[in-house]
Amino acid sequence: MLITLLQALAPIALLIALGAGLRRRAVLSDAFWPQAERLSYYVLLPALFIHGLASARLDGVPVWPMVAALVASTVAVALGLWAARPHLAVSRPAFTSVFQGGVRFNNYVGVSAAAGLFGAQGVALAAVANAAIVPTVNILCVLVFARYGHGGDASARGIARQLLANPLVVACAIGIGLQAGGVTLPTLLAHTLHTLGQASLAIGLLCVGAALDFSTARRWLRPVGQASLVKFLVMPLATLAACDAFGLHGAAAGAALLFQSLPTASSSYIMARQLGGDAPLMAGIIASQTVLAGLALPAVMLAHAQLWP
Q: What residue intervals traverse the membrane (predicted)?
């Protein structure tokens, strides 16, 4: 199990390190990185979400109990973070990074780890997890950016406009609509979206590495610790409680717990950059959680094995 988890995490850490090296040695011009971020936000990540949600195979999976447990735990932790904001001693933009670090997840690691831990069934379980959490966290994060990001509009009209104009939320809606309608993507379109989506993983992580500024690392300690405490302790505990409440157990509960304990995703940095958050802090949280996950994920999954052998 440990080897499987580390193999899923290692490429993430290496791509972040590569991005930092490319930026430090000026291999690419500074003008490249903002354009790469926009490409990822408006094209590559939406392609990833549409393809992943539309093509998910859900056969033989307790879909609704799993969805209920994942959505309930995510919303509960999000509400807890929002309620705790006055006590976190961080700026409003920094709170958006702590929030994303607490609720978002790296689905690349999740799919790889689920397949390794649960075999063929793990792929179907990962599909359900993505279908449940991806739209939930994107809507929650847009709401938080509208309230606390630079230039956010917290009015009802402003929030509705941001939700409707957000390419990640729109992509989730399209993917879920195609899945619910039983629509199969044409082969050519499916392959195109899949290829674009795979590119989002590499480019997003390179951008994260390029944004790392270790001269300000001391300022990260408190918010990185806050986000990681929520991600690796509070969220798994909330998920365990939700699994118990909705009667979820066995491999389905294990996959739910796995996905809710993953380090935050590179898309968190892209959203922070595009929606007025604290992008350098977000890059620090992503890098730190990727390393911490090497210890946290095995501990969480061992706890699952004890509870549901």
A: 39-56, 63-84, 123-146, 167-189, 195-212, 233-259, 279-303
